[in-house]
Amino acid sequence: MNTVDQTRELAAFLRTRRERLDPADVALPARRAQRRTPGLRREEVAELAGVSVDYVIRLEQGRGLRPSAEVLEALADALRLSEDERAYLFELARQRPNRQAPTAEEAGPLARLVLDLSPLPAMLLNHRFDILAWNPEMAGLMMDFGTLPPAQRNSLWLCMLHPGLRDFYRDRERTLREGIADLRASWAAHPDDKALTELVDELTAGSEEVARLWALRDVRVNGRGQKRLRHAVKGPLTVDYEVLAPIQAPGQRLVIYRAADAGSQRVLDAIARECA
Are residues 156 and 215 in the same domain? Predict the structure, then answer.
């Protein structure tokens, strides 16, 4: 098979999605006369998407257009694309969808999975590093996130600015540097996310240490590693962490901690007993 010609595939994909729809599927009035070709007319897609008919024609003919993210969103809505089809459309057009980061209320099945992972400490983050869900063991290890204002339930804000966690990370410099490198990667991947930009501004304005490390422009997505921690009561421990990216929830991260040695396991076991 030849490599993908994305312009031609985009054109063919849009045509097939249009042809599978009936006017009744998109609340358009039924046609007075049946056409020999199936699906919606280009004029109907253009009307639903708020673009010109000529624009739809040129897209379907593969005439070298690169639609904006806003136009792609409108076309995806008009053509009633599924989430997977929408992602495919954006990939073909070399664009990123304008998606809002999920909230704690939208965490859904993954929030339940976080609880099911007990006694392993676990939490669910979005691409801004907001903490969407956590289990009792993670709260017992770090702090009770439920007592914090929602704006502070952010793993990077807590790591970098919360005074109660300043001594929590025994390798603070390395932890900050890795966190900022991960934040920069997410910031570049979501250039239109105003809330994420505001988080960067708050972190760099709130700490000279963070501002210095941000200026280094290090980039690294942290999917696996080790953290040396210090629990406020039970003392030092070391955990291995794993970050999983759920296929059905783009942008979310499931973070799981495991003890790195026998002593650390005893600390986590003690925390788990207190949470039971």
Answer: yes
What is the distance between the terminal CA atoms of the chain, rounded to a whole angstrom? 56
What integer pLDDT is reported at residue 146 of this predicted model? 92
Domain-embedded: residue 230: yes
CATH number reported for the structural domain that contains residue 57 in this entry: 1.10.260.40
Residue 159 · residue 229 · CB < 8 Å: no
Domain that holds residue 15: 6-92
| pTM, rounded to two decimals | 0.75
Residues 95-107: tens digit of each pLDDT: 876 665 555 556 6
How large is the average pLDDT for residues 138-145?
A: 96
Instruction: Report how far residue 171's alpha carbon sits from residue 222's, in angstroms, rounded to the nearest whole number.
Output: 16
Distance (Å, rounded) from C-alpha 217 to C-alpha 207?
A: 16
Pairwise CA distance, residues 78 & 48, whole Å = 5
Bridge partner residues of 244 (DSSP) = 254
Q: What is the mean pLDDT of residues 63-76?
A: 87
- 94-99 — which CB contacts under 8 Å span 24+ positions? 94/6, 94/66, 95/66, 95/67, 95/68, 95/69, 96/69, 96/189, 96/190, 97/69, 97/72, 97/73, 98/69, 98/70, 98/73, 98/192, 99/250, 99/251
Supply the pLDDT for residue 123. 97
Contact 67, 93 (CB under 8 A): yes
CA-closest candidate to residue 140, choices 272, 8, 6, 3: 272
Can you give the pLDDT at residue 24?
74
